[in-house]
Amino acid sequence: MQVQAREIQKQNTQLELTRQVRSFYYQVKYLQHNRKQLKQLDSLFTDFIRIAELRYKTGDTKKLDISSAQARKGEISLLYQQNEVYLKNAYQSLHELLNTQELLSVPEDDRYQPITISTVVDTSFISGHPSVKALYQNASIAEQQKKVERAQGLPDFSLGYTNQSLTGNQMVNGQEQFFGAGRRFSFVNVGITIPLAYGATRSRVRSLDYQKQAALAEARQQALRLRAQYENALEQYQQDIAQFNYYQNTALRNADEMIAAAQLGYRTGDIGYVEYLYTLQTATDIRLNYLKSVQQVNQSVIHIYSLINQ
Length: 310
Description:
By secondary structure, the protein is mainly alpha-helical. It has 2 domains: 2-132 and 226-307, Outer membrane efflux proteins (OEP) (Up-down Bundle); 156-194, no CATH class. The chain has 5 helices and 4 strands, in the order H-H-H-E-E-E-E-H-H.
């Protein structure tokens, strides 16, 4: 029983370790693409500043245009530096979890796409989840201990048999008789021992029975919690996928078109710096939120995997 309990504890530890490794791995992926996007945005503002400086020299714009663009470029730079710190920390956490001396390097993908799963609700995993198995194992241990206590509280019977010879002169009914080695004497001993602390044993048995019932009730409750968490996680996953699809199919394309139109309009003088900055800000938020939507889907999937013991 104790061996099985340790094995279940090991499974629970491995499941949690797998969840953490996945979480930090996909966090690294997210931060890699976030860094790439911030670099692109920095280039956009660098180009904007260059054009603003040219227009300032010709008197077509004011110094405020350049100052505003430089301020926004500085914010992008700070975000980039912060992203580098987060990326370093994620790598460090991943290195510690894997307990390896090798230098880790997560390959960068050209496209950033979320991991997907089936949305069919299947609760067959619940009974095999380590957190549920551990509680059922506690109930089994309590049952075994209860049997031991009952056995210790039962009367103890003993039976003994003796066969021996008495060589030499022996007194029998007041007369001395000689017994040789061929004469054997046999007798049987029967005994019974009743435990004095039988009442205490009954109390321990009753306590163990309560422990068993409590463990079984907790196991059933944990199974219900897992099922509810699983269904809620699937709903959250579907919401995250819907948000990702919006950014991928609509918002991201609009952001690219907005940036292209704003760059052309600002070069030709059709729009001012206020409109251009507003367009860049909107497009920047869309691109960064797209990356966040992918990361949110991945974290939802990782959570579901932990619930279905994968």
